Amino acid sequence: MSQITVLGLGNPLLKDDGIGPRAVRELQKKGLPPGVAAVEATGSLFQYWEVFARSTRLIVVDALCGGGPPGTVYLLTPGQISRTASGKTAELFRHEDDFLDCLDFLAYFGIRPPVTIVGVEPKEITYSLALSPELTKKLPAILKIIRDLIDFPDGITRRKN
To answer: Tens of pLDDT along 22-81?
Structure first.
């Protein structure tokens, strides 16, 4: 069976950095269609090798500093995140180095699932279990975007709203 994986990146102890795990928890509460898994990834992504390896598609949710107002949603692919000459990425996608390195590792073994990144502009990243009011208000729309990506994988790409 095809396995679509929604991967929630981030640290739920750091306010808006926890948008990925929070989205995953909400999706799990409401239930997911057969063939779809939602996973919180809060440590090194290399711990999630088996999750990546069995996925035919990845939808990654994380805080992404794109310069828009808090709660802005960015849809992009890993190829749209540029690495510097040192191999590091710009301070845009907070878990990008580990994530992109993990994708490179998978590709080495011939595993290349399509990846869509749902990046959410944070308001603040400080010690707190709660999301900012801006991201809390935006969460239902973020969940709808994720569900649309599950249901219509080719229907939305590179959208900013």
So the answer is: 999 999 999 999 999 999 987 777 777 788 888 999 999 999 888 899 999 999 998 887
CA–CA dist 62, 94 (Å, integer): 8
Phi, psi (5° rounding) for residue 104?
-60, -40
Containing H/E element for 62? strand 57-63
Residue 111, Cβ density class (10 Å: 0-12 exposed, 13-18 middle, ≥19 buried) = middle
Q: Domain 4-151 is in which class?
A: alpha beta
Q: What angle do CA 9, 10, 14 make, to 5 degrees?
A: 165
Which of 130, 100, 135 lies closest to 15 in space, CA to CA? 130
Give the pTM.
0.86
